[in-house]
Amino acid sequence: MTGLRIAMLTTFYPPYNFGGDALSVQRLADALARRRHSVTVVHDIDAYNALAAKDDRSAAPSPEGVRVLGLRSVLGPASAVLTHQFGHPVMQRRRLRAVIADGAFDVIWFHNISLLGGPGLLALGESLKVCEAHDHWLVCPTHSLWRHNRELCTGRQCLRCVLHHRRPPQLWRYTNALARQLDHVDAFIAKSEFSRRKHHEFGFAHPMDVVPNFLPDRPVPAEAPGPAPHHRPYFLFVGRLERLKGLDDVIPVFARYKDADLLVVGSGGHDNALRRRAAGIAGVRFVGHVPPDQLYRYYRDAIALISPSLGFETFGITLIEAFQSKTPVIARHTDAFPEIIDRCGGGVLFSKPDELAAMMTRMQQDGRYRDGLATAARAGYENYWSEDVVVEQYLATLRRAALRAGRPGMAATLEANCAS
Q1: How far apart are CA 233 and CA 23, in angstroms?
Q2: What dotted CATH number matches 5-215+386-419?
Q3: How far, rounded to the nearest angstrom, does the alpha carbon of residue 236 sit from its chain's CA centroid?
Q4: What residue ranges do the domains of the chain occupy?
Q5: 221-385 — its CATH code?
Q6: Which of 91, 126, 171, 270 could form a disulfide with 73 if both were Cys (CB 3.0 to 4.6 A apart)?
Q7: How many degrees, rounded to 5, is the angle at CA 324 between CA 318 and CA 329?
């Protein structure tokens, strides 16, 4: 059976990436290729270099069925700046138009396109078009709904907010340019019910399907051999070190909690401030960046993952990474985290640091309680966030979009692909 020809357009793609969104795109591309679809990924190396300290990465070979095109222009990182400011691919329009020429692909799948082409990219090509909202770029200039770089956004103050984030304003956001371009898209995907609701609260008018993130299957790491990455019992944080991730009020808890340490895995702009906050607290250890294929070792031996985000996260990939490793989660009662925890019972939710300390104590001292959460966590991964389960949801979304767009042949191909 012949699968679909799919183009995935995204600003960042491994190894030219900073966070987990690009890894999610890579996992999806690989999963679709394993199901006999042909996938071409287009990303922008100039955009990565505009934000990276130096260009020190080279792409690894792609698996069979996935072709990766990394774009560069003669202007280098300035090309990404032009895209950001004008809302269309100023330097790469001709190249992008050639890649996604009419008839070249059955599906054009937009991911994070903010610096690849902005809203002007959505009009290119005549294929079935899907736009996946990994963050809140569709309704927020900073992508995060984290107002003035210090608080949750409860109402638009966009001009002052972007200046607080030290970003130049985008004049196209004050026109109807984005709304016009969105009409070219056949289906929109949110990563959680929470994110879909936030999009609509902030004026996004189009229907959205909800398809969560997933992880490729691997055995339960707790059953795999190998030494623990730390010599003492520990709780774990994994993520970007930014203020909105909420570590500022978690670190002081470990000044009083002496029975276990906190391992902080990740890097980011708030790194130095967090290290200063942790000065003199022996139980807080900064690990730095850990390659994705090594993270399971840290999840495997942790008492629990602590996810204290203050912001409006669209999902929570670290939660399901912990679940896959049969590790429970202690998460702040905000954004999409309650939705994930409530669905499987693989963790608990806190609102204040004192509640966090009490939950840590019980998690460490009551083995039967922790084991029950761990079992629910692993079952939740298998039932809701494993590759087969979620890719079927993606393909169902494509089938519905194809039928709405009057493409019954494509819908039949997707039906056959799922049945095989």
Answers
A1: 29
A2: 3.40.50.2000
A3: 19
A4: 5-215+386-419, 221-385
A5: 3.40.50.2000
A6: 91
A7: 50
